Amino acid sequence: MKRLFLSGLLSLAAVLGLTVDGRAGGLSCGHHTVAPCAYGPCTAAPAVCVEYVEQKVTKYRSVTIEKDVWETVRKPITREEKYTYDVCVPVTVAEKRTATVYTTVSKEVEFTYNVSVPVTVPEKRTATVLTTVSKEVEFTYNVVVPVTVPEKRTETVYVSVPKEVEFTYCVTVPVTTQEKRQCTEYVSVSKQVEFTYCVTVPKTVHEVVQATKYECVTEHVTECVAVCKTISVPYCDCCGHCYYRCERIVEQVPVTRCITKRVPVCYDVTVCKTIYETETRVGHRTVCETVPVVKEYTVNVCRYVTENRVGKKTVCEVVPSIREFTVNVCRHVTEARVGKKIVCETVPVVKEYTVNVTTFVTEKREGCRIVHDCVEEKVCHKVHYCVLEPYEECITVPVYRTICAPVCAPAPCHTYTVGHCHGLFCR
Fold first, then answer.
1. Furthest-apart CA pair in the chain: how many Å?
2. C-alpha radius of gyration, the chain, whole number
3. Residue 220 DSSP SS3
4. Which of 149, 237, 253, 404 could staple 37 via S-S, CB 3.0–4.6 A?
5. Which of 32-41, 116-125, 182-191, 232-241 has the lowest mean pLDDT?
6. Are 16 and 103 in the same domain?
């Protein structure tokens, strides 16, 4: 379908190109101009003929190639480096002095030597200390003073007045009556009952058991032992002289030795074995049974009877009465007073102290520390990249030919191939 569409498009372009270029006076092929067909008075229109020709073309396809790429990488390496640093330490120097000692008399001689030691020297220094000083200061304060004032007040008092009142009340009176009632009592009766029980009885039985003992058996074993011995071997030198030379040889000598083996021997032993047998025995035991017995009793039954009675009681009635009395009322009055209080103030006082001052001497020491350096190292990485690889392929290309069919005077015609001309047919 694509080939048919391309051939039709190229045919249309060829016809249009020929028409335009023919009017212009010729075809432009490359850098040259091709003269048009010479038409006589009786010449017909040129015809375009399409032919398909196989042509080799070079195409490119992408191919993935693996390649080793060396890259310089800086890696940190840890190493120990010696460095010098200053430390302030107290230094004690011991000095040796020479003393003259006589051989005849030995005596102890005192000598003086210098030693550098840290010395703590008391120095007097001045320091400002804040001391608390108390003083009296007058201040004004308010005091709430209670003032008692007599006031007359009226109150209502309830007075109780007793009086007798009749009332009716109910009383429960107990009445005792004799009644006959039946009571069931349980009496315990004992009797002898037979029962069966099992008893485990030990019994001694003689049983034959196999026991193993080990006996020592002596055997003679012959073995070959390697024995080294020296022998004289005759030799002749290159001059024909014979002599003997001692050589050590190893011989296998049979040796017989006695060995003792422990052989197990089984024998029968009669042992006493205690077994337990179960026996069933019959015994008697006393069993108590509870038997119900019905008896008749006369009991006193107490019943309560309600009676209405009339009585008198004293009732107190509360009667209100008004009275006047004088009470002392306490009121609080604020009063301003002047007092004195002790106030503490912080006053700076200069005092002199003796402090111990320690002097340090600078001493050089050597230590080890870890230093990180970067070392260049070549590392190989595998990189995948695409490369265009050329390859040849045969394709079918349409070739257009213009055929001039003159009627009267033939004129020469030119054949051109698509792909060599400028414009629409350019390669």
1. 182
2. 74
3. strand
4. 404
5. 32-41
6. yes
